[in-house]
């Protein structure tokens, strides 16, 4: 039986990897029933190697490390995904995320480095960063899984402690990865590939950052913009889990970037009517999970005058982090104690704190600062501080350690954000239903929008006119965490993006730097629709980035996107239109790969191995004795047939000759 629609762990390289056989890893199925049962697999089981089936409750670091250390008797592992989240916390990330590529180091207050003051992710077990020499799959708890369990019960489970008899149920996992050793080795082999059709063995992780400005900026003229001052409003887009293609990121990423998108939408009208002195720069970073790929690239480009603005143009930074699980309706304002030793930076940080407190007036959410001096939590802002002291804050729902018990795990889902819908609602009704989670994030978005407006120099008298829309927030939550294939997303994207929409949540794994991912494209079009305007030009001019046939200048200041619009109630022909906005994409590829510094300590060096076939199957396997006997009989038959063939060939003239008739014979 072939197994389809399952997930697997992909070989991600920095300096470690896992090995899988080119012909697939084969083992006798064993459903692990308790942690004590591991000793049977690793020691007394009579039919190794085993392919271990783990219920989600047993997918722990202690069990996985035991299986890893006894890998000579383990051919692979398949984890059965639960339908509900566990009560205990689980995070396969480290307890100190991105500790080696943030701002705190031996040269930037060593006492704050390596989470010496605050362990941000106390549930982090580091499982995603371990090296395994067998494939690891995850499986939905569905019909395929029930067939596997039944096969095990019928053939492999001994009765009353007896040894199971052959034939036994076995499983084969195909997940051969091309890359070996580490990033430096695989990139060097990529470079040395001299064939006419070179076959790459690994690719750098990466994607595109999404950004937009409240005032159009000439993107052709790179570098410093004289007289321009920008307030960077940042959030991260990506997430991950232990398994490839399962990265829901509800709290770790989605709560933050949805709040920023809703804030950008809330600011659109007031900025048109009463523009502030400074430009607000909405930025959505990709690849932050893997050592800040997106933010480090943007800072690198700013430093090297390869971006629309440079670091001299950056006035301050407000980053929206994990904001979906706040307790007591309180959010926390985290700042960097080292840069605040600079008086001018400290003064601007105090102003930003004051602005956020002013923005929270008459809202159900309040803000506060931590009681103790501690470093910044893992955040994109740290990459700006590595370049120079810049005033900034990171908005989080935790004062010290993460509130998120499932940071960067497969359990960080809509359920984790307490999203729920009344029974018997249709999909369209769920899309429009304003959940309690949406109401809470709407308040956060309003807070962020008002604070950004004041920070950019806007008048406080306008704050009452800045309010996020709960309907937009609830649609985004449904679209990203429940079903991307919904009527609202469909009308905001072009027709060629329809194939990316599916009846499932979005996967926020960053992927490799070859094309824009689904989250990047969706956020790009959402941001354009929320901050841009409908422009009455033809589809041809829109796609050619111009307002008319003679226009050669607008493309430097604006981007033009043709979207398919809403479907009419009684028809299928959509009324498409052009959206003009300042939304752009910029490369989110680590500078290490441009510099060919594959062992860099300053930039991310994550790569992903290439593969050809990922699949699994179950079958019955005969006993080794029967297999040897069958082989022996086969060899005996082969020898006998060869001997018989030789004898018949050597005596062919006798065996196959016929008597000759006389030449003068007559009839």
UniProtKB/TrEMBL annotation:
Membrane spanning residue stretches: 628-648
Name of this protein: Nicastrin
Protein location: Membrane
Topology term for the membrane: Single-pass type I membrane protein
Domain Nicastrin small lobe positions: 21-179
Similarity comment text for this entry: Belongs to the nicastrin family.
Tree of life domain: Eukaryota
PANTHER family: NICASTRIN (PTHR21092:SF0)
GO BP term, example: Notch receptor processing
InterPro entries, per the entry: Ncstrn_small, Nicastrin
Keywords: Glycoprotein, Membrane, Notch signaling pathway, Signal, Transmembrane, Transmembrane helix
Keyword rRNA-binding belongs to the record: no
GO cellular component: plasma membrane
């Amino acid at each position: 039986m072939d197994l389809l629609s399952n997930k697997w762990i992909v070989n991600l390289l920095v300096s470690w990897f896992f090995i899988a056989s080119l012909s697939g890893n084969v083992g006798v199925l064993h459903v692990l029933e308790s942690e004590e049962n591991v000793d049977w697999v690793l020691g007394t089981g009579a039919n190794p190697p085993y392919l271990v089936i783990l219920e989600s409750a047993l997918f722990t670091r202690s069990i996985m490390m035991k299986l890893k250390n006894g890998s000579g008797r383990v051919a692979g592992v398949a984890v059965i995904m639960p339908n509900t989240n566990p009560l205990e916390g689980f995070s396969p990330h480290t307890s100190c995320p991105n500790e080696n590529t943030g701002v705190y180091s031996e040269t930037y207050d060593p006492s704050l480095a390596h989470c010496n003051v605050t362990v941000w992710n106390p549930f982090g077990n580091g499982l995603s960063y371990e090296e395994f020499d067998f494939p690891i799959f995850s499986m939905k708890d569905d019909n395929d899984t029930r067939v596997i369990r039944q096969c095990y019960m019928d053939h492999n489970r001994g009765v009353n402690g007896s040894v199971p008899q052959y034939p036994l149920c076995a499983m084969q996992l195909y997940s051969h990865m091309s890359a070996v050793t580490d990033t430096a080795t695989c990139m060097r082999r990529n470079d040395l590939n001299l064939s006419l059709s070179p076959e790459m063995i690994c690719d750098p992780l990466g994607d595109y950052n999404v950004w937009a400005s409240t005032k159009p900026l000439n993107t052709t003229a790179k570098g410093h913009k004289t007289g321009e001052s920008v307030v960077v409003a940042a959030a991260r887009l990506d997430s991950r889990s232990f398994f490839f293609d399962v990265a829901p990121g509800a709290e770790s990423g989605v709560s933050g970037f949805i709040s920023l998108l809703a804030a950008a939408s809330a600011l659109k009208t007031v900025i048109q009517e009463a523009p502030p002195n400074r430009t607000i720069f909405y930025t959505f970073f990709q690849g932050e999970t893997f050592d800040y790929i997106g933010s480090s690239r943007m800072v690198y480009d700013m430093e090297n005058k390869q971006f629309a603005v440079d670091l001299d143009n950056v006035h301050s930074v407000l980053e929206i982090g994990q904001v979906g699980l706040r307790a007591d309706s309180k959010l926390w304002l985290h700042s960097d104690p080292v840069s605040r030793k600079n008086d001018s930076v400290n003064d601007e940080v105090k102003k930003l704190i004051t602005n956020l407190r002013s923005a929270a007036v008459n809202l159900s959410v309040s803000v506060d600062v931590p009681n103790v001096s501690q470093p910044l939590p893992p955040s994109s802002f740290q990459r700006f501080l590595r370049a120079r002291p810049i005033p900034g804050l990171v908005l989080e729902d935790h004062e010290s350690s993460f509130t998120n018990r499932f940071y960067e795990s497969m359990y960080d889902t809509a359920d984790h954000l307490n999203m729920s819908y009344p029974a018997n609602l249709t999909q369209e009704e769920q899309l429009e239903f304003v959940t309690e989670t949406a109401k809470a994030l709407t308040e956060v978005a309003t807070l962020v929008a008002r604070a950004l407006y004041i920070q950019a120099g806007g008048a406080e008298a306008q704050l009452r006119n800045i309010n996020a829309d709960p309907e937009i927030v609830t649609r985004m939550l449904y679209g990203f965490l429940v079903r991307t294939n919904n009527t609202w997303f469909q009308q905001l994207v072009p027709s060629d993006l329809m194939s990316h929409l599916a009846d499932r949540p979005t996967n926020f794994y960053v992927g490799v730097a070859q094309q824009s991912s689904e989250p990047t494209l969706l956020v790009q079009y959402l941001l354009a629709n929320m901050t841009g305007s409908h422009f009455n030009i033809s589809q041809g001019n829109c796609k050619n980035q111009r307002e008319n046939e003679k226009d050669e200048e607008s493309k430097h200041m604006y981007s033009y996107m043709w979207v398919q619009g809403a479907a009419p109630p009684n028809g299928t022909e959509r009324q498409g239109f052009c959206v003009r906005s300042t939304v752009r994409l910029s490369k989110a590829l680590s500078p290490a790969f441009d510099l060919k510094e594959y062992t860099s300590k300053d930039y991310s060096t994550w790569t992903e191995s290439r593969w050809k076939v990922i699949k699994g199957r179950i079958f019955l396997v005969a006993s080794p004795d029967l297999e040897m006997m069958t082989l022996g009989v086969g060899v005996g038959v082969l020898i006998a047939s060869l001997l018989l063939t030789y004898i018949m060939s050597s005596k062919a003239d006798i065996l196959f000759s016929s008597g000759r008739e006389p030449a003068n014979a007559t009839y």
